[in-house]
Amino acid sequence: MIIVLIIISVLIILFFIVYQKRKNQLLLSNIEQQQKFDEELIKTQQEIQEETLKHVGQELHDNIGQMLVLATMHINAASKVVKDEVKPKINNASDALKNTLEEVRALSKSLNSDVINNRGFEATVKNEVERLGKFGFIDSKMSIIGEKVNFENNKDEIILFRILQEFFSNTLKYAEAEHLRVSLDYQKEFLIISAQDDGSGFNLETAEKSSGLINMEKRAELLNADFQLESNIGKGTILRITYPYKTA
């Protein structure tokens, strides 16, 4: 009887061990499938967003840009026939149109993924930082550390740039910052990207996460990049991304 009880006990234990193992395997499988589904969903969303941004960029360049060119031509023609006392106002309007045209063209390029691929990540970020400073949005500067590393995947360049672009947008809209500093640090295995403003900042623990912040984190996850965002009220906000690049 004792031997029978021992055998039954061992069988019961083995049954529960096998059952628990199968259960854990099933849970892991479900988790992996959910992760793959989430990744595919995010990738699809990114592709749709990129196509939308590309279309908007082309519309800005082709349609809005042409309309501004036409308006500038009319203003220049009008300046030749108006009275001298009116010409300064006409010239001011002409200069404003020219600046607007430059801004529209620069913005259209930053929205078009094909342009980003052709320029490369570093040049695109540099152009965006210069654009923000040139038009007086904010005092922005960029520094580069180390020797440039070319990316193996152009899509990674676009995703990283979109993260920075979202940070720049939030800085301009909400931070009331005067200065923006961006740096690219090319290390042996990682590219460390940092962006910092001296704006109003916010409390990360109590602030409700906007779609922009969520998108930044999700995009970083697609690249297996470490995403850190620090912010303190009255002390500005710091973004830090550690991207494990692959050399081409």
Concise account of the structure shown:
It contains 6 helices and 5 strands, in the order H-H-H-H-E-H-E-E-H-E-E. The chain has 248 residues and is an alpha+beta fold.
Topology diagram in text:
Layout lengths: L1 H78 L7 H25 L1 H7 L1 H14 L4 E7 L8 H22 L3 E8 L4 E7 L13 H12 L3 E7 L3 E8 L5
Quickly list its features.
five-stranded mixed β-sheet, Heat Shock Protein 90, elongated, 2 domains, alpha+beta, 248 residues
- Sheet having the most strands: 5 strands, mixed
| Mean residue pLDDT | 82
- Going by CATH, the homologous superfamily of the largest domain would be Histidine kinase-like ATPase, C-terminal domain
For the terminal residues, how far apart are their CA atoms?
71 Å
| CATH top level class name of the largest domain | Alpha Beta
C-alpha geometry = elongated
Question: What count of structural domains?
Answer: 2
Order of helices and strands: HHHHEHEEHEE
Please count the beta strands (DSSP E, at least 2 residues each): 5
Rg (C-alpha, Å)? 27 Å
